[in-house]
From TrEMBL:
<keyword id="KW-0812">Transmembrane</keyword>
<keyword id="KW-0472">Membrane</keyword>
<comment type="similarity">
    <text>Belongs to the SWEET sugar transporter family.</text>
</comment>
<keyword id="KW-0762">Sugar transport</keyword>
<feature type="transmembrane region" description="Helical">
    <location>
        <begin position="92"/>
        <end position="111"/>
    </location>
</feature>
<keyword id="KW-0813">Transport</keyword>
<feature type="transmembrane region" description="Helical">
    <location>
        <begin position="38"/>
        <end position="59"/>
    </location>
</feature>
<feature type="transmembrane region" description="Helical">
    <location>
        <begin position="155"/>
        <end position="175"/>
    </location>
</feature>
<dbReference type="InterPro" id="IPR047664">
    <property type="entry name" value="SWEET"/>
</dbReference>
<feature type="transmembrane region" description="Helical">
    <location>
        <begin position="65"/>
        <end position="85"/>
    </location>
</feature>
<keyword id="KW-1133">Transmembrane helix</keyword>
<keyword id="KW-1003">Cell membrane</keyword>
<dbReference type="Pfam" id="PF03083">
    <property type="entry name" value="MtN3_slv"/>
</dbReference>
<dbReference type="InterPro" id="IPR004316">
    <property type="entry name" value="SWEET_rpt"/>
</dbReference>
<keyword id="KW-0677">Repeat</keyword>
<protein>
    <recommendedName>
        <fullName>Sugar transporter SWEET1</fullName>
    </recommendedName>
</protein>
<feature type="transmembrane region" description="Helical">
    <location>
        <begin position="6"/>
        <end position="26"/>
    </location>
</feature>
């Protein structure tokens, strides 16, 4: 039985759902007319990651990867523009955005000018995107260590944790179905980090019941 179409839809639905969690931050910015207490770099790095995977999906002619990352990139661009409108640190945001654009242009020139062979370009691009994705999944580990020490899970978003778990699982199964380890391997850490978060919610939930509800910040 070919599960590829089912897994493809699962990847699209879960991933778009995960990207849409940023709409919460967008609503906060519009209501408060401020970008305080909202992180900018996750929007920027996710946008770069989306564009990298979009290029990979285009070279591989994988419509699932293309659709997901077109939607993801457009959402991240929306978040970036809105953040710029409401932040007080416009110069810093502009410099970070220009630096990201420079990295993107250099990467584009490298993969389109110096790597002309299709297979070599696809493999190197897949490896690059995999490394970036793994680093994004593992970057919150330092925050998780701090949460374990403090016993306070209020800074974790449970909906985002659920979305990350199902998204990572769907992509791992999709990658296995296609025998594409550039899809399977980088999404595996997402499953493990989500399981760690679930454990933290279970372990510290009772100790946090008397505290105010957690704010759905990205961790």
């Amino acid at each position: 039985m070919d599960l590829t179409p089912l897994l493809s839809w699962a990847c699209i639905v879960f991933t778009v759902g995960m990207f849409s969690t940023g709409l919460t931050d967008l609503r906060k910015m519009r209501e408060s007319k401020s970008a305080d207490n909202i992180q900018f770099l996750p929007f920027l790095t996710t946008c770069l990651n989306n564009l990298g995977w979009l290029f990979y999906g285009t070279l591989k002619m994988d419509h699932t990867i293309i659709v997901v990352n077109v939607i993801g990139a457009l959402l991240q661009i929306l978040y970036i523009v809105m953040y710029f409108l409401y932040t007080k640190q416009k110069r810093l945001v502009m410099l970070q955005t220009l630096a990201a654009a420079a990295v993107l242009i250099c990467g584009w020139l490298y993969f389109t000018t110096f790597l002309t062979e299709g297979d070599a370009r696809l493999h190197q691009l897949g490896l690059t995107c995999s490394v970036v994705t793994v680093s994004m999944y593992l970057s919150p580990l330092t925050d998780l260590v701090a949460i374990i020490r403090s016993g306070n899970v209020q800074v974790l978003s449970f909906p985002l944790t659920v979305a990350t778990f199902f998204t990572s699982t769907a992509w791992v199964l999709y990658g296995l179905q296609l025998n594409d380890y550039y899809i399977t391997v980088p999404n595996t850490p997402g499953i493990f980090t989500s399981l760690i978060r679930f454990y933290l919610f279970w372990k510290f939930a009772s100790t946090n019941q008397s505290l105010p509800s957690y704010k759905p910040l990205h961790v």
